[in-house]
């Protein structure tokens, strides 16, 4: 029997992950045809629907989602990468309901996290059972379940799937295996394609990890490997980063002019964090936690540190440091007006604590689990029991958030995130909500407009300016750099850039004479060049590093 299991261990592990990916969501997402919705569900629901509508209209790489704000358009696809959302969006295009598309996507997120975590454990030299335990501890951790069920922070959730690979990549570099630097690139790119804030958080972790292991990293080959990984990651993410910087350099957005929150206001006491973790408390604004299993494991490892040598001192130290950074014991007031304020919530660092705690427990360097009969099996049972209890408590405490799959399919395009971060500062969103009837605005005394046609992603009309100087016309689109007007005048075609209406943040044009105009968002040169750079880098990376590595393994 043991021999049969060993020969088929890969398939058995995969099948168990597939089964757990579904079962760990069953109570909150599938039971009785209901879904427990989270804080951010509207926004990510609309992102999926918006991408699906863009695809249905033949726009395969959208920058503006015209599903948002009743057609005014929101640059969700520009500021929040859509890479992973193509999975549910394509299912929507194929005719599946929004609920079905999301539930399949959610299951795949779990499966991907299980798989990447397990492989990361194997890369770090953990035997199969310890890698399996690492995968369960991390993927089914309380903080990640909070992200999944109570917050539905899909970007952060996707990014967390690659955190274990970052840890594995750093362990290889620490051990001097610099030839595998590209694994760190894959991990960081995977995170960047999901959630930029998580990229910031992981970058902080990497910096501290390198400093703690300076003797291992301050070597020419290792530093060169880190530099390669950094440069290639930036090149792979150029198609996303460059357009964002281009927009930010030309427009002042709400995220800058009116930040949603100050990071110092969102920290809380260490005692609260410990109490929340001890109780596996369901997430609310001040109850993020790592859960009882990881808390006990972390504390036990901390106690054992003083009793015998521990090879994971650096990870243990970083676990406690990042836990401290979650609380008001850390001087966050000093960082309110710095780029770190974009992290918004200090408790996001619990994602790193979760990663490191899960690894430390699974690695079991002090052989605590080995001393307990069937210790690893018992721990697995406690993990699974903890998931069931947490899901039932989420249902009990957040019953008002339970909706049917049919209700989930009903969308409201005016949910664009609590902070409306990427609206131009000139946009008054409350006023916009009262003006849902989108109309072309102009002064009828100085120009006339006829045959106006408002389509999914453009507007066209015939015009005549009756005065000698140019006239301004405002269009029912939120302005982002890249809107262009094609003007046909006297049989000649010319393109002119649209401008920002500084009164309301909409797209505006300056027109003169007589003609026909069509306005739509066009890919900028920076977007085209950066996309080309990313695609070329991807092709080179796979041909030079990834494919040869896979060929050797298989």
Features:
single chain, 554 residues, five-stranded antiparallel beta sheet, three-stranded antiparallel beta sheet, 25 helices, 11% strand
Percentage of residues assigned to helices: 40-55%
Count of beta strands:
10
Largest sheet report: 5 strands, antiparallel
Roughly how many Å apart are the termini?
Answer: 26 Å
Can you lay out the helices and strands and say which pair or pack?
Blueprint: H1 2-7, H2 9-30, E1 34-36, H3 41-56, H4 76-79, H5 86-93, H6 98-123, H7 128-139, H8 142-151, H9 154-160, H10 163-174, H11 182-192, H12 196-212, H13 214-217, H14 220-236, H15 238-250, H16 254-257, H17 270-278, H18 292-304, H19 313-325, H20 350-363, H21 368-371, H22 375-397, E2 402-404, H23 405-408, H24 429-433, E3 447-454, E4 458-465, E5 471-478, E6 483-489, E7 492-497, E8 499-500, E9 506-511, E10 514-521, H25 525-553
Antiparallel strand pairs: 1-2, 3-4, 4-10, 5-9, 6-7, 6-10, 8-9
Helix pairs in contact: 2-6, 2-22, 3-5, 5-6, 6-7, 6-10, 7-20, 7-22, 8-9, 8-22, 10-11, 10-12, 11-14, 15-25, 18-20, 19-20
Give a verbal description of the structure.
It is a single chain. With 554 residues, this protein is of the alpha+beta class. The protein is 55% helix and 11% strand. The protein contains 25 helices and 10 strands. The strands form 3 sheets. Strands 3-4-10-6-7 form a 5-stranded antiparallel β-sheet, with no helix packed on it. A hairpin with a 2-residue loop joins strand 6 and strand 7 (492-497). The mean pLDDT is 92.
Provide a compact summary of the structure:
The chain has 554 residues and is α+β, with helices and mostly antiparallel strands. It is built from 25 helices and ten strands.
